[in-house]
Design brief:
Blueprint: E1 10-11, E2 15-19, H1 25-33, H2 51-64, E3 67-74, E4 79-90, E5 95-103, H3 111-127, E6 132-138, H4 142-151, E7 154-164, E8 174-183, H5 187-199
Parallel strand pairs: 5-6
Antiparallel strand pairs: 1-2, 2-3, 3-4, 4-5, 6-8, 7-8
């Protein structure tokens, strides 16, 4: 991963990751309203009226080479149901973070998240030759932490008082950030684990 990561479409059985575009705006506004996701004080999910600005922000970071943003497309409906990214891209050390991820409430706890992570991890390790892939989340985001741990990622540590929380319901509070990673030597086992998870029937 010595050069810029180019946008790419990654296709699975349940979901497809497509390069984020302004055309996804209306689907994403509908998606974020499912569960009023922006109200969670420990996350940074855009409100409906801020979706256009958030799409622009992510595309600007892509132009700068520090992020590759995706719209998560549900294959069954053909609609965007969330967003995810490669972010904090470190070309020299062949590391990326998978983050800034959210899904509409209806597809949470389905196979969509597992498959999207499987697609992103496979591309990172097998196409981009990454040494490690990171995941970061708020200490109090128990659902996110559990989901990351189910992938097979290991906790590297907690960055205490890492960031100032901008959410209106927690303005001025300090975020402790849990840092997880999967390293290249672990990928074959993690891939087998994720494939097993995706092969199991879900309620």
């Amino acid at each position: 991963m010595t050069r810029r990561i180019e946008p790419v479409t990654l296709t699975g059985r349940h979901a497809t990751l497509m390069p984020l575009a302004p055309a996804h705006h209306d689907d994403l506004v509908e998606a974020v309203r499912d569960g009023e996701l922006w109200r969670h004080w420990y996350t940074a999910i855009p409100a409906p009226e801020g979706m256009a600005a958030e799409i622009r922000r992510r595309l600007d970071l892509q132009d700068q080479g520090s992020m590759v943003p995706f719209a998560v497309i549900e294959n069954a409906s053909g609609r965007a149901v969330g967003m995810t990214t490669y972010m904090n891209i470190d070309h020299a050390n062949r590391r990326v973070e998978i983050g800034s991820t959210w899904y509409r409430q209806r597809v949470q706890r389905s196979g969509v998240n597992t498959e999207c992570k499987r697609l992103l991890l496979a591309h990172a390790f097998e196409a981009l030759d990454c040494i490690a892939v990171e995941f970061r989340t708020h200490f109090f985001n128990r659902q996110s932490r559990a989901g990351i741990e189910r992938l097979g990622a290991k906790l590297d540590g907690v960055l205490r008082s890492h960031q100032i929380n901008p959410h209106p319901d927690a303005r001025g509070s300090l975020r402790d950030t849990c840092v997880y990673s999967i390293i290249a030597i672990e990928w074959p086992s993690v891939k087998a684990h994720l494939d097993h998870q995706l092969s199991r029937p879900r309620a």
